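fold-stage: in
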Amino acid sequence: MKRTKNMVYKPSEAARELLLVATNEGRLYSSMIVPTIKNLAKKYRKGQFDANKAIDAFWYIADAASKQYHKDFGYLFSVTERFTAAQDMVEYFMDDIISEDA
């Protein structure tokens, strides 16, 4: 995935809100987060885990959560907020990736 100049890590309340929405949304969890964790766990087990590629994988989840939030509440998260949430998701799910628990 090509990174843009707005894809920087900048902690904010909005990014934290997006992280919470993404991790607590049942449909997103079962359809996107679990397969991503399993895929990254496989890469970790083989020794091919790359944190930047993991952020790219979670970017799509943050983007889907942002679209769902926009549909429900009318607010669309910025690129920086989505990227920050994706990076936070990697940290949040790292124990699951290492232990292969999804």
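fold-stage: in (second)
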Amino acid sequence: MLPSASFDSKRFSKLTGLKAESHWERVLPSENAQSGYHVHLNGDIDKTRARIGVDFHCRSTKGRRDQSPPYSETVMSWLGDLVTEPSARAQVTASFEKPYPAWKSRFNLPFKVTMSGHEVVIDGVSLELPANPHRVSSSFILYKKDSLYVAVNSIRPVEFKKFEFSDEVQSINESLKVFLEVSV
């Protein structure tokens, strides 16, 4: 979320044809079919704030022949051209599916407890994490069959012009090692 004074909503509307005063959402295709991801761009802008969501999703998507920028690979730089500040604080949620037993929880999952005379399997746990260089503050781990499903939350600075999706994923993936271990 940014103060609306920091976001050029008139230029945004001119470039996209979207009205800044209403909620909007667009799927941005991949310019490079090998990128492995596409983006859902959404938000709303009013007189006091600009709320912009950039959701990265697995799998590349192909755009129309007449598609114009931004593409999934360039969306952060494109947004940087519309924001007066070179960086912003972003709320980041990332989800991963890790193969089990190659990745194991440091917290014993699943485990069984007795509740009201019945055996109950606890297959997930929520964690509040200590300060770490990746700025991941909390996580949820769920064990299902041969996979661990992990979601992490963080608030981290984003430099629009220097943003590299693969670097962000790598950093957040490293943070998982606080509560998951990789079997060799």
